[in-house]
Amino acid sequence: MPVIEAAATALPRYRLTQAEAKQLAARLFQSFHQAVDRYLSVFDHAAIDERYLCMPPEWYERDNPFSEKNRRFIDMACQLGKEAVDRCLAESGRSPADIDHVIVVTSTGIATPSLDAHLMNRLPFRRNIRRTPVWGLGCAGGVAGLTLACEWAQAFPRSRVLMVAIECCSLTFQRHDLSKRNLVAASLFADGAAAVLVAGDDAGAVGPRWLGSMSHTWEDSLDLMGWHVTDNGLEVVFSKQIPAFVRQYLLPVVKEFLQQHDLSGAAALRHVIAHPGGAKVLNALMEVLPMDPAAVAPSWRVLKRYGNMSSPTVLFVLKEVMQSGPKPGDCGLLLAMGPGFSVEQVLLAW
Description:
Number of helices: 10
Distance between the termini: 12 Å
Shape: globular
Structural class: alpha/beta
Largest sheet: 5 strands, mixed
Radius of gyration: 19 Å
Oligomer: single chain
Helix content: 25-40%
């Protein structure tokens, strides 16, 4: 089976503490409601200490048209993507010429030519490399992209596939959207990128092995998460019902996947590499899956340090788990939910 040879991450330059983010939101949402201070408490309960943004805080206080936001997105996504790729290749001792396929995942901006083509003009990949852009999977994109990379490497066992997840969530912020959902999103979301190198059986690589993947999309759930495309850009759709949805519907899907691989339940997993969508979602996940709290501790640490960066975030968790030195025989479940409403799962073994 394919192996994950390396994982690396990249962050933009502007660091914002949660206290600073709350102060910024207080200025932006001051006309939101007379009790705006009470609503701002979501920042205190988000389990986030700091996060990183593409632009300085004062930029978000201006009226930025969609064209400006998207131009910034392309510039920053290329910068972050290249940085993550450079680090991933350096960690693995590989070069761009060793890569047979590049997959780029994003949902926070629009680019045609797609971001993979932009990266090909910044990195010396072979001209005949295969490239696949993936758009619109939101927070689930990191796990879905990893599945695509592993399935390609399984089909072509001598190949190496580079999967890059890049999101600039902050650039989608709409200053005149004074809805509660936008306020909650502002308390959570951040920017970042991650790159993962996957190698086939015959490529001579070592790392955790991919055992399988599973996707599940629930019907009549399109309104839980996503974007409304408006004249001002991408307006967030972020339902308060997501934690309750997780509690009600997630467990049977996870059980089905684990049973396919002869694992009786989450308690058999040493590592639960969960996308930290927010404190409420992580708490709901821990209530549903009977696991050792230590198994999901890296997800809490990533949320605390970086916030929710959408698709790359679960790969930040994966990198931390890989660096922690898992023991031979350990199993890990990657899990992320996103628009659809859907869940993506990947099972790894060390």
